[in-house]
Amino acid sequence: MLTIALEQAHFHAYHGFFPEETIIGNEFVLDIYVRIPGTVPIDDLSETVNYQGIYEVAKAVMAIPKPLLEEVVYAITDQLKSRYPGITHSNVILRKLNPPMGASIRNSMVSLEKDY
Fold first, then answer.
1. How far is 23 from 47, CA to CA, in rounded Å?
2. What are the helix (H) ranges across 1-116?
3. Angle at Cα 73 formed by Cα 72 and Cα 74, nearest 5°?
4. 112 with 77: CB under 8 angstroms?
């Protein structure tokens, strides 16, 4: 297997259950890992998953506010698989920095790992 990834992609987005989160927004950090069969050498971009394409999918999904982070990671995995049918495995990790909980918490996190 060959793994292609984006790590620590930062976004300001408006995901959240509470109304103030959809107004003020928050900082998010996204890690995305995808796997494709890697049994032969790859010498052309069309034979792999372009990490620029991964970022484009993430940016588009992050721009659409969702009440639950679970919705965001599912949307990212669905769109990645649609854009890159050769993906056999994905892991999307989304962190919300300083979640508004009235406590000192570095981040909340939702992770979705899928085999296709």
1. 41
2. 19-24, 51-62, 69-83
3. 90
4. yes
By CB atoms closer than 10 A (0-12, 13-18, 19+), residue 90 is buried
Could you say which of 3.40.50.2300, 3.30.300.20, 4.10.800.10, 3.30.1130.10 is the CATH number of the domain covering 2-115?
3.30.1130.10
3-state SS assignment for residue 56: helix
- Flag whether the pTM goes above 0.85: yes
Longest dimension (CA), the chain: 52
Q: Convert the pLDDT of each residue in 90-103 to its tens digit.
A: 999 999 998 887 88
Sorted by where each begins, the domain ranges of the chain are 2-115
How far does CA 32 lie from the centroid of its chain?
5
**Residue 14: Cβ-neighbour burial (10 angstroms; 0-12, 13-18, 19+):** middle
Looking at 1-116, which runs of residues are DSSP E strands? 2-13, 26-36, 89-97, 107-115
